[in-house]
């Protein structure tokens, strides 16, 4: 049931195509830039957002049974 609801892109994060990850990274970088965050911390923020992307889109990285 969880798999159907979550609609993951892949079983594990290493199976997500690199072009998809790079496209997401570019989008996140633009968002951080437009939010006015200091350039020195953009990479760390983007890395955190990519980690969350993996958690949302790779089945083995998803959290089970935890609430918000």
Describe this structure in words.
The chain has about 70 residues and is mainly α. It has a single domain (about 1-60), classed as GTP Cyclohydrolase I, Chain A, domain 1 (Orthogonal Bundle). About 55% of the residues lie in helices and about 0% in strands. The chain is built from 3 helices and no strands. The longest helix has 17 residues, at about 20-35. The protein is elongated, with a radius of gyration of 14 Å. The mean pLDDT is about 85.
Q: What is the molecular shape?
A: elongated
Distance between the termini: 19 Å
CATH topology: GTP Cyclohydrolase I, Chain A, domain 1
Number of domains: 1
Q: What labels would you give this structure?
A:
56% helix; GTP Cyclohydrolase I, Chain A, domain 1; 68 residues; mainly alpha
How do the helices and strands line up, and which of them pair or pack?
Layout: H1 2-6, H2 18-34, H3 42-57
Summarize the structure.
This protein has 68 residues and is mainly α.
């Amino acid at each position: 049931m969880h798999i159907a609801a979550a609609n993951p892109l892949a079983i594990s994060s290493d199976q997500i195509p690199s072009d998809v990850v790079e496209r997401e990274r570019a989008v996140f970088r633009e968002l951080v830039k437009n939010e006015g965050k200091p350039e020195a911390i953009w990479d760390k923020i983007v890395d955190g957002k990519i980690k969350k992307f993996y958690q949302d889109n790779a089945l083995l990285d998803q959290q089970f049974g935890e609430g918000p």
